[in-house]
Amino acid sequence: MFSQTITNYWKSQFLTGDIIYNDKIFTLTINHELSEDSRVMVLENTDGQVLAVLTPEMADKLDLSKGQEMSELIFRQKLNEAGVILHGADCLFYFSEAEMNVLLQESLEGTVRPLTEQDGAIFSEFESSASEQDLDDAYVELDHWAVFGSFEQDRLVSAASMYPWEEDVQIADLGVLTLSPFRGKGHARKVVRSICKYAYEQGYEPQYRCQLDNEASTFLAKAAGLTLFGKWDVVSPNCTVGKSE
């Protein structure tokens, strides 16, 4: 369903290294290449399979080794006992190959256009009309790799921006924000599809993330034609367990 870029990326994250446990439901891997910020990660696929990966240092702290009885529940109990806190899962959405082909045939909506540094005043007015919480959650910035906006009567009412997810990985992560009075009018859907089409044209796979409890964002992803790939969790930035001194 999804491109090789997507499937290969997540396989490289969760199945590279020493697989110390594997059954039909749960797989646990020790990966020497993980960064400190990703020293513990969990991915639940839509088919119910759960993949977990951690650094050798974290495996030592959790007293994990080959041959142990293991399951997702046991793994999470060990995390809890060691004081390892996860950030809270994000839903990961991507376009299926079929939906990508549909998207690439579309024309840019008349009310949507790319934004540049010349739109600084317009974008500042847009930001000042949004709440701090919405700005933090969306992470839409004018200086990102790509920025698109949707207008209503010459006013910027919805914007999306993208930045490369990781160096040497052709995935672009996106955020989107629509001002409260203009929600439910299709602006966000149009701006998401427009910026995603642009990403494909530049050789990148669009990535849409949102927290599990963000029903409005989940609805938007599906309305924009994206499909749920899985639920991804990573160690909390506030967790000190396993950090380098």
Automatic annotation (TrEMBL):
Q: Where is the N-acetyltransferase domain?
A: 110-242
Q: Name one Pfam family in it.
A: Acetyltransf_1
What InterPro entries is this protein classified in?
Acyl_CoA_acyltransferase, GNAT_dom
Q: Which residues cross the membrane?
A: none
Q: What is this protein called?
A: GNAT family N-acetyltransferase
